[in-house]
Amino acid sequence: MAEEPKETAPGFQNPVAGFAVTFKAMFKKRLTEQYPEQKKTTAPRFHGRHQLNRHPDGLEKCVGCELCAWACPADAIYVEGADNTDEERYSPGERYGRVYQINYARCILCGLCIEACPTRALTMTNEFELADSSRANLIYTKEQLLAGLDEGMVDSPHSIFPGTDEQDYYRGLVTEAAPGTVRQVAVSKGELHQSASPSGAAEDEGVEA
Ligand code: SF4
Ligand code: SF4
């Protein structure tokens, strides 16, 4: 047996019925956000721009292991590790991240990289304003991603806290830079040693990188 057609609104009501949704929406509270004049606070665990963290004395937590790069589904991270030396030390252990880049033209802010990081060197901030009109500007370098210096920190490179080892850093035994800690010369970045000339004036001494 053929199904009976459903009852529809009388023909003259059809043009008006179409506006029902419009009229209902007119009296609802507006949800328009006045961005960028008024910025909304993000959720505490919002996935925003990354940050490379430091130990409490200013040395870097990244050990250049590349696990974050391998975990990234968008191939957005590039890492090159290198060996620390006593004269130029960036992290407490053997290795550090010499080159670190995140390409925000690729990154989908999924957070898999921070899960993969064994030292909690990599975390995410709440900063979300990452748009740019240039692809080159969207590749953030280590210098841009590295956390700033808090009280008690000395910028890397510098020597390890005397009498401690790498494990002590992870046990939380190092809480600030040792008194008298000074930043070393970053020879690998092209910085030059300063040495006093016989005349007493300081002059640059070129050092092989
Ligand atoms: S947040 Fe996701 S996409 Fe972005 S760099 Fe990390 S793993 Fe890759
Ligand atoms: S951020 Fe973490 S996972 Fe990535 S290279 Fe550094 S230590 Fe390894």
UniProtKB/TrEMBL annotation:
**Domain 4Fe-4S ferredoxin-type, residue spans:** 52-82, 98-127
Residues covered by region (Disordered): 188-209
Q: Cofactor note, please?
A: Binds 2 [4Fe-4S] clusters per subunit.
What does the UniProt keyword field contain? 4Fe-4S, Cell membrane, Iron, Iron-sulfur, Membrane, Metal-binding, NAD, Oxidoreductase, Quinone, Repeat, Translocase, Ubiquinone
Name the HAMAP family for this protein: NDH1_NuoI
Identify its protein family: Belongs to the complex I 23 kDa subunit family.
Its recorded name reads NADH-quinone oxidoreductase subunit I
Species source reads: Streptomyces seoulensis
Gene symbol? nuoI
